[in-house]
Amino acid sequence: MAPLDLEGGTLGQKHAHYNKLLKEAISSGQHVSAFTLGDNDIENLLKIDQACHVRDVDFIVSVFKCGDILCVSRALARSRWLITDPQYANIINADYVHTQLFPYMSTKAFIKLIKQIRLNILDEERAEQFYLHEKKDTDALKWLPKCSANFIEANIEKHFNNLKMRTFKRLCEKTNKIFEIFMEKTCYYDRARYAQVAMFLLKADVDKFLDVIEKDRSNYLPKFNDKATALIMKKSPKRVIDKFDRFATSIHIPTFSRFLKTDEIKPFLYAQAKKENDNNFEYYNLRNFFRYDTLKYFIKKLPKNEQFEFVKKIFIDKEIADADEEKLVAGTEQYNMRKLYVVVRTPSYVWYRFADFERAFQDITEIISKDLDNNDKISMLAVLMACADNNLEHIQKLIQYYLDKHRTADNHNTWKFTTDLLNNTNIHQYDEKTWSLINELFKILKIFDESDSSSVQNIGVIIESIIVYNLIHDQNVSANVQQKFSFKTLKQYGKKLNEEQKEKVFRYLYNFLINKLKPIIKEDDFSDTISTLSQILELLRDWKKQLADYTLVTDKIKECVEIRRKNSWKGSLLHIYKFNKSWQRLMFEESVAMNPGEEVCLNALKHDPLLLERQSNDVQSLRCNDAVTLRRLLAKLRTYWPQSLSTQWVEAYMENLNKTDGHKATIRGLCASLSQKPLLELIEKYKPTQAKIDWSAIDDRILSIQRFIAKNMHIARPQPSPENILFFARGDYLQYALPSLLAIFYNLSIMESKKYILKLLDAPVSVQKHGIRLVYKKLDHETIKKIFFDCWKASKNVSIRAIIFKFTFELLCNEKDSANAVSLWELIELFIDNLTFEEDKKIYELMSNIEKIPLNVRAKYLVKAYNFMKNLTQKVKEEDRENYKRITAQLAEHSRQVIEDMPSEFITDIIQEFIDKEFFGFEDNFGSVYSSGGIISVISAYLLSAKSENEQAEKYEKVFVPIMRRAFEKWSEKKDGSFIIRSNFQCLLTHLSNDLKDYVVEKNLLLPHKMFLNIKEELEKSISKSENYMMLTKWKLTVALCKLAEIPYSEGDNWVGITSEIATDFGQIALDYLKEDVKIHFPCIYKLYSKALNSQLHLISQERIKITIYRCFLADENFIEGYLTAIETSKESYSYDKDMYSDLWDQISEHPSVEIKMHYYYNTNTNNDYC
């Protein structure tokens, strides 16, 4: 039986015939037999479409498992019901898809299936199953938008680091709670981007959206466009007006100003000026508000007759400028005007834009007359142009003034004045008198001189204006002007002209370009013609003309195509062809020559496939062009023209094989065009007989064909079996076969992979690597472990061992099941035990990535990896030693994260080594250690991670006491004039103090009050207070904080709750300590005490809690040092948030003490740093 071939000439006609055949098959009720993949695509597709129509699930599933991606794609596209209809949930669920379909589907087919399910699934519960089944967070994230709102909210924080904005928007569409979570949990500088994407939520609830973004105290707010600003001003105008300083740079100012009433304008501007005068960082957004370009929108809201008077009083008259601000009464009109004057830095003459022309002309010309060299002269004249507002009398008066007073001015100024005038007025409305005056300006600039003696360079605007004016007034354009004209389409003038005037200008420009077209004699003429044709097309487009009406142009294009083809010139016509898509139909016959590529060939299939035969020479060039891909075209030919065009193309490709070049395009074409059987015959014909190439005897043509078959056979549909590529994947041919080898084995189903893995693992090293990669990607963990272990034992090759270690490590890092993690760790442990000191460096680098190891095996891994790296460091070359020391140190430092699981002996050993070599052995180091991390943090974690007081006491005696006693013995030792031991010991104390919040409470550990108290007693007993006041005081405050925290901590409070509850008691104790120190020592001790207290208050993140503590220092009005301490400790926070601290500082300001008032005013004066 002859294979089915569709009727019709064009692609559309063949589609129509196909639809007719499908309709007949469906209406006949013909049963669809079990699916078998045939060579005829149309027959395969008909069966699939028929099965999809009757919902034959078994048939569809069998198509999914076939190797032809065309059939799989068609089945997926036509069986959306399989995903959306709940009755098929037994098939489209995570378990069935991954256990019953995935092992039998090619990789590409399965990826398509998963994507189709993800796009169309409606059942949130099933989507959640797919999410939970994914091992990688990035893959799981793709399912999240299809899950329920509660599920999304519970899992979103896992994906903060790799969430794309597009996905974020989809999640916000599902639940607006996501927006709130992101605005609360992400970095402040990212929040504006997220808020911008979530702007659509504004429509649902304006106040809620603003509530969320206003919680962020930073200045990073999203940009509200005109529509968003209008919506806010309709729903909640007051909150934006009251907090305008926060929204000033975010909202659309012109829209915002429209919603203010006329009587609100002045009070609003005064209020913002008062904020700007305050110099508070919160009002930083107002820095660009007080400019003409912004304020004009508000001033124009005032009545027309009040606008100029308002700006005149403030910015032009001297009364406000010269006023003594201290003598003005707050709240009066003059006081407010003065405040506004101070913050606006726009030159006074700019405000004349609100005046009528006569007034502006009189005042500005008077200003200019007093200083003819004024650098702002041209800017002032530009203001007068704006005031003239296209009134010809005013324009004439302005030009005449310039001619009378500034004729001898610098030519650049004259050019600037002239071009500004032409750009900002309507020259088509000029009368003869106006044009005569402006001609005088042209003469000054020597525009009409025949020689190119113009004193300015850029005269384009002037020449264009002359041409347009002359044309619309039926005057000739002089040859001199035309010569200076650099072609532009002048479309900006067309918007202002009537139809008759437009046609005059267009016709001139068209003829100007047509006259530039010359006979094409040489290749330079061809290039010039193409350039001119591009300008003509640009002209036609900008003046809304149709190319079909200008046959002279289309004929010239066709002439260029023919000349280029005849002379084999290289000049491209692509720009001409692609200039306007709707004009391409006029160049259909020449399209292949003008745009040689797949796109025009596909277009030919839609409209007239015979074009490919008529333009056979150009098509043949395409077929031989290695740089052009024709896969989509060849796929269409193979499916819809299997007996005609496709056969012709295959024959042409076969003929090309006999040539010595163009084999890449030829082989790629054959792989895409041939069905399975003839392709396998081609591969069989050219497969190499020997693995090694005999370069002296090989036929270069045959070798070229073999190379490109090896490289490109994977693009065939369906792909050849692995046996075919394995013929090439050996010896000298392996380098050519790698692309196909990787692609074919990557695409194999799991069941198919199992048949070929052993062949790859038994191959040379270069192929064996890819076999290991295939094992990793395709097989289950137990099988992978067995194969990897066998390969590891059998191979001494460092590359093979490195890739095995890498993939096993990745498996362990990605494992979520604790039992599987233990099993994989045991394999990794065997590998580490078997490692030498001469492995691939990638293994050693990989071992430092401990953060990714599952927690239940991380401690064991850390000990094993640390011990190996420590031994390695002693054996490697000098140039590698520092890097491996760094990795070893990272491993040791990470033990803090899993300190509860770490062997005690291991921790004490690394602590002791650190103490000996760095803490006390600083002679070989740069100086002190740092409290932010390193082994100092491990010491702190080890001491604090006790389960009982007895255990903590034991750790204290074993670890801390020896450090402390040894430190006291060396307390007076210096290096470069610094007490390094004291500094190191302070770092340790600081870390212990900080870890109250960051470690003890966070991990719900035992509060170390007794240990801290013991440390305090030892410090006070062993070091002098005069030399170590700061250390002693800070630690005394830490002990007090720890003691007070015991009761709320035992009740399960978090750190914020604990510090909130104990704030008053802690503040009282801190005050008592200060009183005691002042009494014992001297009043100025409050300065040092304040620094110590501030250091400990860093443990408290909530400002309101700090304020509660600061208030305790104000409890005793007779204790001056208490007030001064409150000022010292809170002044920095007050400068950043005056609103929150206003009550506290108001109370301070009311104290009658002169000393307190001096400190108060000094710290509230924002300019004191410049005095």
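the 2nd protein, sequnce then structure:
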Amino acid sequence: MTTSSDEHFTQAFLSRSTDEAIKIIARRDLKSGDHIVLWSDILSVFKNADYIMRGEFLVPFLTDENFDQVFPLRIAYHSEDVLDVVIADNEQVHSTREATELTKGSVPSRESKHHDNRSFVKLPTTGIAPTPTPATSAVADINTDNQSIDIYSAAMPEDYQSILLTYTQQNSSSLQALVSGQASIQQSMTGLQAEIDKNKEFREQLVQMKKEMDEKQDLILHMQQQALERLTIIQSQVQALLTQTYELHEYPIPRLFIVLPKEPGFRNKLIPAISESYRLYFLCECGSHTMAENSNTPPEIHLAIHEGYDLDKPAEFFKNYGSYVLSLMYMVKYGITAVGHAVPPLASLRILDGLDTAGEQLKFLEKNIALHDFHNTECVALAKFDNMALEGADLRRLESYLQVKDQKQVLGNLYRIVTAEGHVKWVCLDHYRINYRESTIQQLREVVELNHGRFVEEIGRIEIKIGSNILVKQFYDAVIRAHGIQELDITLEWDATTDDVQALADAVSKANVIHLMVNGTYFKGATFYFFVNRGRRLDPILHLASKRRVRSLHLYGFDDFFSRVGKDALASAEQFRVFTMNLELPSEEKATQSYTEFLECCPPLTGLQLKLNRQYSIAKVIQDVFRKLHRLESLEIDYKKSFANVVIMKGNIHAITLIMEWLSDLKPDDLRSLLESRFTRLNLEYTPLEGDEDRIDDALRHIPVLSRLQIRFQDGRRLTIINTLGMTLQDLEKMASSDTLRGVESFLIDCGKHSLNANVSQGKIKDMVMTIKRLRDLTPDGLEYLQQSQITHLTIEYTPQEGDENLLTGILRHSPNLTHLQIGCKEERFLAITNLIISTRATIVQERISSYMKTIEVMEEKLTPFDIFGACDNDRTYMQSVLTFNEDSSSFDMRTWIRLRNDMHITDDNAVNDFIRQYGWSIVFFDEYRTKNDTFAAILDDIPTQRDTQLESLIFHTGKFTADGINCLDNIIMRSPNFRELGLYMYILYESDFEKAKSLVKRYGSMLFVLRIASVSLEKWLPRIVSSFPTRNFFPKLVTLDLQSKGRYNLRVPWIVAMVSAPPQVTSSPSPPQSRAQRRSQSTGSWTALRKIVLRNVKLQPEEWETVIGSIDFSELQYLVLSLSNISVEHFRLLVDRIPSNNTSKVPLKTLDIRALQRS
């Protein structure tokens, strides 16, 4: 290195041998530009200088980036400090006065009194004191001198004697001063020696400290080297992620994000968190591509302007994306600058509470994913991160893990842009506006709106139809200036010329459009311009594929597109990825040749859609395309009314789905050609005709990879097809042992009124499910097939009518493989159908007919399952029974659920009443609301006593009850060993209603599971209910709370809060002393969480709603009804925030009813 001196900069030094600071000129290092002081300059002043101190700290020699000392040796320049020079032990300090010896008996000359007498005292620094000069010797010298003076004076004249006397007196005074000075010097020498001894001890301590400092410095250097190596690896991973480029079709959502533990929500502040929650934050991919004009510094990557997304299934998410998340978390923790991107450290991102736990998150990721040995440098150096980057499919799947509240919003409020290199980035609105000036965007909006188009600004997509070349020029200018459109769907509504098409191509290229869709409906065929341009009018469109701009091209509405392009339009398209053509490819030679040559020019294609006419063979087209395009991932072929979808994985055909109207659309060799394609799965769906039986049989027998067969046919064609399919399905059993059809998984036959679904495992039919709408729709031939087939499950959606009994009996008697039967049935036919099933079963056992029937379900029409908590029509009765038969026995078990809404009396001739009398013992759930006084209790009490009742749950109206009814109710409960739950509908109008309800609650409160309180004056009666039953402990089994008011205020909110709150947490800490009443009210302990809450037409103050919503226990809640209540939009938002995700509650919320939501 070269240096130069600078006289304006000096460094002050001080040592123990100097009284004043000595300044040495500092030099300037020409390479670094810093001022330094050379060690050689210091040694020129302080010969034996050992080292330099700055107060209590050592001033080290400067080193290079490898911590090697820079030569010549130098120290840093300290402008405002005086540095201490520590001298080596063997140096002697020079005083500032010269030593003068007074020779005994000498007489100084006259000139001598004009010279300064200087003495030089050498002070040893070795710790050995000099030999002291006693004061007596100095006095003796003085006396001797006086004697000599007396001798001289005797021989001198008088005037000389006076002069000599004067001189002698002066000399004596000087000698006395000298003696006094020597004593003072001696005292100073003694103090100096003491300081030297202290300095020696300090030096020894300093040497020890320097040794320890060197050891620590070596350790720091080692750790720093490890950190540098680790950061280098991290930087290489992050740089690889940042430099990874995506094409438009691979980049549907943003790719840069971080995951942090979620800030505790309202629920977690009330009770302990059930599980860890995480939130995903997207990052704005700003960089050099969004750099403002006249700026040399790229903007820093930052959080998107969005609150983030809660993660659904976090464990699965980290399993699939853990390595990727870890790299991005390191990127934002340490910060990085690479490839035109600047990422600040995490602290500058300001993620509030997430900052404190970011370190914990990194530790969690390092511990729980494959990079657990990340801190081991040697392991990291050998690690491979080939799977670190996300593929397009990974990005598309990422959205499934996010709890997205607004499906219409773009993730993270980010905008998609395309860089000059054609790479896709997602940036925030601010950087989007920097990249595309707001004024030009506004102009583009106006042009699109003028032409009644659609501009989706977030993803840069325009859909527009333009009627003239004048208007289209204005549109092209706006698009080019905006320079931010990635997707363009354009229709030119006139017969465009070659110049018009070329103008479109030029605008698309200049605007950097990536995905282009062109509607050619208005392009006519053989016009004058067609002949002038020799059939090359559409060449500019194909030229776009080879210009490295357009990655995806979709053509629709054209007539003979490939017949109207020339050979010059075909060029290598290395960047082209997706081509879709919603137009029929003609069979003429020119079009076929142009199409084939076009595909050969596009080897990187990953997606292809074609439309063919009937002259093409689907199988042959698939083989030809697959042979030309080795990177293809998906292929779709539209074949008149048929459709083929091919899924390709890792260069091999994985699955082919064929959907066709007629099986004859397949050419004679199509099935065998498909077999040669080496695919692993085939789905075949079509509508057969008469005579297609052999083709179906051939499909099943000669395609070993067949996975699923779907057949949809018209009513008049179904019988022979069903019979043929039945025989073919039976053949599957025989072919199972040969492994020929082990890939078949399922078959579906759908004819509208009937459907047949067969599940197959390794060539063996596992089960067959047949669904029919009505019994009478089943013809004799169909019944014969049903009886002879391997159908195991039969479903009849609607009620069997009178006259259908023989059909149902025949199915039960002659379907040996049938194990499950479901029948939809209205209440008036419920008893008849049940009796028919039971009697037929008894006949089967008596006649020893082979039967595997196990379960029969009779239920609501359309097979709607019974839901004890679900909403119901108060004018309809719902019933469901499940009969389970024992093997080779007429005995059976039966369970019935009834929600009775008939206004009947015990003496009425009613089908439901008759069913209860006969099969009432099977009722497990009974919900009554509208019967006359004591009717339901009398009906249930009148059930024959031959069998114990199975009643478990009972709900009834308290107002229609008398003392006799209570006695009946007690008898019912005593006869029901499984009884455990009772519900009350309390409709209170008068004092008698309240007293009756109060009495029943006191009597049965411990087993209440449903409590409905309704009144036109709920605000009047609820306080009295609260005073009688103040706490939730009075209803430990309550799972449904239903409050229905008439819209008046002043309800007891604290009681409602107590009812909807979670059970208390059991703790071991001692509780404070309680009164006897408190202990009695809490003696029942904890309670069951609510599953249904109804607050209908309830009016509360805003702060009261906040309290109620904040208290709701969602752990097992399935139904929450707040209809007709005065809940506001703000309260609804609070409610939505309170609702947990599926992974944080035992049972997810099924229904949320907030009809008539009040807007504010």
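Residues 563 and 590 are 6 Å apart (CA to CA). The radius of gyration is 50 Å.
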